[in-house]
Each structure stands twice: as C-alpha cells, then as structure tokens.
Amino acid sequence: TEGISQPDQPETLEGGSKDLFSKFDDIIQMREGLLASGIEDPFNLVMEKVLSPTRAICNGRDTILLGTYNYMGMTFDPDVIDAGKQALADFGTGTTGSRVLNGTYQGHRECEEALKEFYAMDHAMVFSTGYLANLGIISTIAGKGDYIILDIDSHASIWDGCAMGNAEVVPFKHNDVEAMEKRLRRLPEDAGKLVILEGVYSMLGDVAPLKEMVAVAKKYGAMVLVDEAHSMGFIGENGRGVVEDAGVIDDVDFIIGTFSKSVGTVGGFCVSNHPKFEILRLVCRPYVFTASLPPSVVATAETSIRKLMHGHNKRAHLWENSKRLHKGLTQMGFELGTKEPQSAIVAVIMPDLEKGAMMWEALLKEGLYVNLARPPATPANMTLLRCSLCAEHSDEEVGTILGMFERAGKATGILGQTSDQSEG
Ligand code: PMP
Is residue 371 lining ligand 1, measured as CB closer than 6 Å? Predict the structure, then answer.
C-alpha cells in the first residue's frame, strides 16, 4: 500500500463536484503520520511462509504468532489437511454457485450435520463467512416494526446486519444487565424483539454475563442470538461456548459462529432449534446471493469440528497458556483488558496509537506477532496490543513470549524501569 495517498490531489474535481475520497483524508493523514516516523507498517504485514499454527516467516523474520485467533491450532492438523486434499481431488476447486442452486455439495450437508452434532441442535446453516452469517441472520429475522437490543461493543458484522435490516436498533452499555433490562422494559410488549450478545468480546477478551442476560431477555419475551466466534471449541465442557459454560444453551434461539478461528479455515454458520429455521435458506439474501464455500473448505471444517468435540486436553492447555501470559504480563506492570483471564484473548492496553505502534514494531523485531487494534474497532478509543493464544503454543514458547514483552516494553519506555519483572 505504499503510495496509498496522493496529497497533491485537488479537493474538488473538474466541474466543481466533491472528490468522493475526501472523506478519507483524516485516516490518510493518521496513516502518513505513523509511517513518517519510520515505523514498519502495522497493517501491511506479509506472512511469507507459515511453518505451523504458532510460527511463520513474517517480513523476513522467524516469528511466533500470538495474534491469529487460531485458538485450537487446527490449521496444520494432519487429518484436517487430508480431508481438504481429498475433497479438492474428488470435487474440484469450487462450486461456482449459490447454496440454493448448484452450490450445495455433499460436503456442505456433512458440515451442517457436524455442526448439529457439535451443538446438539436441530438445524445448522453454513454461510461463506461469519460476517455473512451475522449480516444474513440479523437482517432477515428482525424487520420493520421489530426491535434489536444489542451490546454497544458488538462486532462490526452485527452492526452491519442491523444496518441492512429495517428493525429499530436499541444499544445498551457493554455487559450491563441493568441497562439492557431498562431498554427492554420500555419497548412495546407485543413487538418482536431480538437480543444480540457475544460470548467473548474480541477486543478486551471479556466474557458476557450470559446467565443473567438471557434470563432478562426471556422475561421480556425477546429471542436471543449469541455470537460465539471467540469461544467455539474452547469455552464450555464440550467447547460449545459461553452459552454452555453459563448453562443457558437451551434458552438461546440462535448461535452464530465462524470457521475462521478455532475451526481453522473460513466460513460461518448459525445453529438453532427454531422449528421454522429452514425457511431462512430461501429468504436470507447473504446466503442466497453469494457462492458457497469450496468443497475443500467444508471438508476441512467438518473434520476440524468433529475433532474439536474431543478437544478436552487442548482446551486445558489453552487455559494454562492464557492464565500464564495474563499473570506474567500483569506482574511486569502492563495494563490488561481484564483483571483475570477470561478467554484466550489477552489485550494489552497501550497509552496511545504512537506508543502502541512502537511497541508492536519492537515486538515484531523480537520475533513476535500480535494484533495492533485501534479505534473505531476498539471501545473507548483505546489502542490495544491484542494477543490470542493457541493450544499449540508450547510452555517454552509462552516463556519466550514473556521475555519478548519485557524487553520490548523496556525499550519503548512503556514499562517503568523499576517495575517487578518476575514472571512468577
Ligand atoms: N463475529 C465476531 C465476534 C468476530 O470477531 C468475527 C471476526 N473477527 C466475525 C463475527 C466474522 O467472522 P468471519 O471472519 O468468519 O467473517
């Protein structure tokens, strides 16, 4: 993206009309300011070679990956890879069609069967991405005259689903049960209502109080949709997510998820017990008007989902990794997104974007990749270094990661020289 902006471009075009790109001037300037300091571009990293779920050659360096959402490390699982190769050989490279025309292969059905078993639910619908699953389900089920009550820190795909539909959107303060109830209390009793929550919020890695929230939603007769993108395969006895852990899986109407995190490929889905669920296949535009996933992708997803059903040991090791990283970083003096580790995401709060980018670069030079997250993706204008752990990170790697954070933190001045650096 070098040369992304043309600073000498005139504000108006021939004939006096406004350049449609003038709305991007602020972000162009912010980006140029950052790059002018000589920093490596945090949004233009290239993985030249991927060695395993936890290691890659990035910008020429051997790098530990700590920002990939590859929670269960399924991307290099030999059974998953074999299933993908077989499907590629047997069914070709792509379906070239919509699920409702020529794009439903045996593999799409088998993948939906695996999801139904994984969640012990009656229906499963596979979309081409998780983004499309949220866009499709939300905009289709909540229409004119209905209300969507949602957490203000919801993922962009949820907000976009709301924007695409015609329902009235009522946001409430992040993870605040009382604020949610106050909104619900004011809505017309007989109106259709959809409460949208996430199991794990991806910016700070915090978990929603689903037990209380689902009870309140039911009290007001609302249907409940929970996006479990960041908990599938990891949280809950069987990896079904925070809904399982909180004991409310039978009370939620829809679970949305993605194949792009624990499952290790690409795709999205919705599972439900609603008796009329199957009609969505005909009326949900982001399901109908796009091509279905390639056969190799659904084959890898199905195999991965079936293996995740038996992932107890991996789940236990991932928890150990998350707890150790959280504790080590806290003891060094970093400010984290949550007081206690609540998920496989550990967010390190940076003082500002400039310092955040410096720290990000210092870590990359140490050989560690994390996500740099900034507004508007982050809550409260925060700049975050988001770490997501993997069940395949070894104990040794977690130790190495902590050492890298300590050196980079000192080099950038983000860690005070006097703070306690013991890992404990
Ligand atoms: N929901 C949440 C909470 C997410 O974080 C994401 C992706 N980061 C998605 C949905 C979209 O998933 P996908 O990558 O499959 O489009």
Answer: no
For ligand 1, the distance from its centroid to the CA atom of residue 10, given in whole angstroms, is: 37
Reported as a single tens digit per residue, the pLDDT across 252-306 is 999 999 999 999 999 999 999 999 999 999 999 999 999 999 999 999 999 999 9
Residues 114-136 pLDDT 10s: 999 999 999 999 999 999 999 99
Q: Whose CA is nearest to atom 15 of ligand 1?
A: 130
User: Ligand 1 centre from 268 Cα, in Å?
Assistant: 8
Distance of CA 267 from the midpoint of ligand 1 (Å): 10
pTM for the model stands at 0.94
Interface ipTM > 0.95? yes
The pair of three-digit structure tokens given for residue 283, joined into one six-digit string: 């009326």
- What residue ranges in 239-325 does DSSP mark as E strands? 254-258, 268-272
* Ligand 1 site, residue 300, Cβ cutoff 6 A: no
Residue that the structure tokens 């860690």 belong to: 415
